[in-house]
Amino acid sequence: MTDRAHIFTAMQALLDRDSSREGLCAVLVVRMRGMREAQLRFGYGFGNEVMLAARERIVEIVRHIDKVFVAADDTFVLLLPAIRNRTHALLAATRLVGGFDEPLMCGDRPWHGRVVVGAAMHPEHGAAAELLCRRAEIAHDEALRIGEPFAMYQPDNTQVEILYGELREDIEANRLQVYFQPLLDLRKQTITRVESLARWNTQTHGEVAPVDFIPFAERSDLIVPLTRWSLNASLRHVATLHRAGAPIDIAINLSARVFVEQGFAEQMLGALDIWGVPAESVIVEVTETALLTDLDMSVRVLRRLRDRGMRVAIDDFGTGYASFAYLRHFPATELKIDRTFVDAMIDDPRTEQLVRAMVEVAHRLGLEAVAEGVENQETLDRLIEMNCDMVQGFHVGRPSPADEFVARQLADASFV
């Protein structure tokens, strides 16, 4: 790992030296997309060759007074002194992005990669090198979010500043937590399933809500390692219950982005074998939007999992664009009725009829109906009357750390 402290020291000396001169300084974070995959496929030596070739290309693109630092296995930090304005910094970013239109030659193998660039300005966005690098990282992450090749840092006090490197390192170091939320089987009147949820507590911001970091992971290349972590961390806890004779089913959310990962179905099935959890105990949940992202790819992967015994739930049903044509081809075993309908049905008779219709549609298609967002007894009673199969929500049980949930279940003699 490159010594970032050394880079910050060198950059700070340059910033302090140039602060008395005319013009601004720009700090650029340049990240090579797909480097992790290249290293895993061709080896770390190939990754080193790519980085050496990339550095040579960057040096050719920028001015002789600009400084280029290698900050990680896939990241460069550039310091551009004597920049007239933001536009010139973004022009430099444009040149860097365009400079990788042609593949890098590493030995006799070309590498078709691309870069994403984040920029911050000195002194407008900070005087310290470390802060400027962090804010250039945030700009990089914003570029990923909006699907652009580069972006300039824009202060926004309402948005959590998620750092790509911090999330990646915390996933690799297993610093995230698994939470389990219970689901109640209305026929058996027992908890027979849990949904696995990821929680992230950072040194920078404390607890970051899933609504912030999971969409960010989906927009970047971190959703695949996040999914792998979630799968293995969840199965580890479920395996403890199975070994103790207290089996329980586990629902795991999948992003449509993971379906394009080569061999993903085999990786998931391999994880089940490693932890000794039967495929029949696993439900994968996919939102309706995944149906539109790449229906053919989604169907192929999910059918592979279904063939091995896993179940498939369409999550947030009713909020997306699913139609009977999609449901006809999609290998689902259950529908999860979105909480926006369940929560509103007590006060809105029309919504109640919609929920009733969704339950009936699920049953007519041979699927289980699962209601999300059950917050009170009255809602639960209505769903029982509708013949809904399973429910979840704060009235049934709030999410809790997986290890605490497992300990409670093992201590409950009636469960075993």
Automatic annotation (TrEMBL):
Family annotation (InterPro entries): Cyclic-di-GMP_PDE-like, EAL_dom, EAL_sf, GGDEF_dom, Nucleotide_cyclase, Rev_trsase/Diguanyl_cyclase
Domain of life per record: Bacteria
Annotated GGDEF domain residues: 23-155
EAL domain sequence ranges: 160-413
Listed Pfam families: EAL, GGDEF
GO molecular function: cyclic-guanylate-specific phosphodiesterase activity
Alphabetical list of PROSITE patterns matching this protein: EAL, GGDEF
Protein name per UniProt: EAL domain-containing protein (Putative c-di-GMP-specific phosphodiesterase class I)
